[in-house]
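Example S7 (structure tokens).
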């Protein structure tokens, strides 16, 4: 008799991702493969585990599948220090991951700042810690337990911000920063939250339910427990699945437009590299705004603080020129029209 359907589903999702990791390692240029792809030590894949149902299900599936593919599996839990006893809870998660025979297993403490609000600040601190741990341990990938439900919530949050197609595309299955674009993998984006919880239950895996997930002070919590249920009541079941499909369709569109903008940018600059307003005006709006955003970020504006309204203001220097002054942007960046050129620089 095979495993429970929920367990089979999570294992299959992780198996596919691990195959992708091995393929990526093999396809890298020889100088960048590292020992995992050149006959040295087996590659290491880490799971980011909070102790919740999603990440515990992911940890269990990684522990089961990795050895069959010759992959080492480890785990990292991040102690944000935002709740009393968080250090003890992190120690419990370490114990649970060790019981699954993950190795290495570590708990990493972080200090959460205030930039962007509590949720964004905690996320930034968490990813910084995961990046540091992955670099130190030489991990080929880090698995994250985001589910289809998380994806639906992310799409709705992007819609509420009015941030455009890229925000509606939600979370990518594969992501990462410069030089590590394939580091983070999300095997569960096609799996619902209940499947992950069921997999933990049938395997008798203890889970921890973060009280922040039901705290109405957090936007995502309100959306999860009030917003999405209201939408399902009004529109019927299937809202989560539809939002997840929207994310994928939006991501395909956004990727195509980003590629177009990257190619178009070279054609709208003069011989000194300055953006020419007349050539920018001739571009389709969706492409032009992407070119402008790329230029603003390149000038030093933090991408995470740059919203659609900022780019719209810069765009008016091209499409609604009335002699207006410089536009102030995040990161002390200014955009100003001068003699038919758009000048973007840090002030």
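Recovered sequence:
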């Amino acid at each position: 008799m095979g495993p429970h359907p929920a367990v089979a589903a999570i294992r299959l999702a992780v198996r596919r991702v691990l195959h992708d990791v091995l393929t990526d390692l093999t396809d890298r240029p020889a100088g960048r493969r590292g020992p995992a792809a050149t006959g040295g030590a087996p590659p290491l894949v880490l799971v980011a585990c909070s102790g919740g149902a999603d990440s515990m299900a992911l940890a269990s599936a990684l522990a089961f599948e990795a050895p069959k593919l010759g992959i080492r599996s480890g785990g990292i839990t991040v102690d944000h220090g935002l709740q009393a006893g968080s250090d003890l809870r992190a120690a419990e998660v370490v114990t649970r991951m060790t019981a699954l025979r993950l190795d290495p297993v570590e708990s990493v403490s972080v200090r959460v700042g205030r930039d962007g609000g509590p949720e964004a600040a905690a996320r930034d601190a968490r990813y910084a810690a995961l990046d540091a741990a992955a670099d130190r341990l030489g991990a080929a990938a880090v698995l994250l337990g985001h589910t289809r439900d998380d994806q639906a919530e992310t799409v709705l949050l992007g819609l509420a911000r009015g941030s455009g197609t890229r925000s509606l595309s939600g979370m990518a299955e594969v992501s990462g920063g410069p030089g590590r674009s394939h580091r983070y993998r999300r095997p569960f984006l096609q799996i619902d939250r209940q499947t992950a919880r069921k997999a933990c239950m049938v395997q008798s895996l203890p889970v921890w339910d973060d009280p922040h997930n039901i705290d109405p002070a957090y936007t995502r919590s309100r959306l999860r427990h009030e917003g999405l249920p209201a939408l399902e009541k009004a529109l019927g079941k299937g809202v989560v699945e539809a939002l997840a499909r929207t994310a994928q369709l939006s991501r395909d569109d956004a990727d195509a437009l980003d590629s177009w903008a990257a190619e178009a940018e070279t054609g709208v600059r003069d011989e000194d590299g300055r953006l020419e307003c007349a050539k920018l005006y001739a571009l389709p709006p969706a492409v032009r705004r992407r070119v402008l955003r790329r230029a603003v970020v390149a000038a030093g504006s933090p991408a995470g603080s740059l919203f659609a309204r900022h780019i719209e203001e810069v765009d008016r220097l091209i499409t609604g020129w009335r002699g207006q002054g410089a536009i102030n942007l995040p990161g002390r960046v200014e955009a100003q029209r001068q003699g038919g050129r758009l000048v973007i620089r840090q002030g």
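Notes on this example. The radius of gyration is 23 Å.
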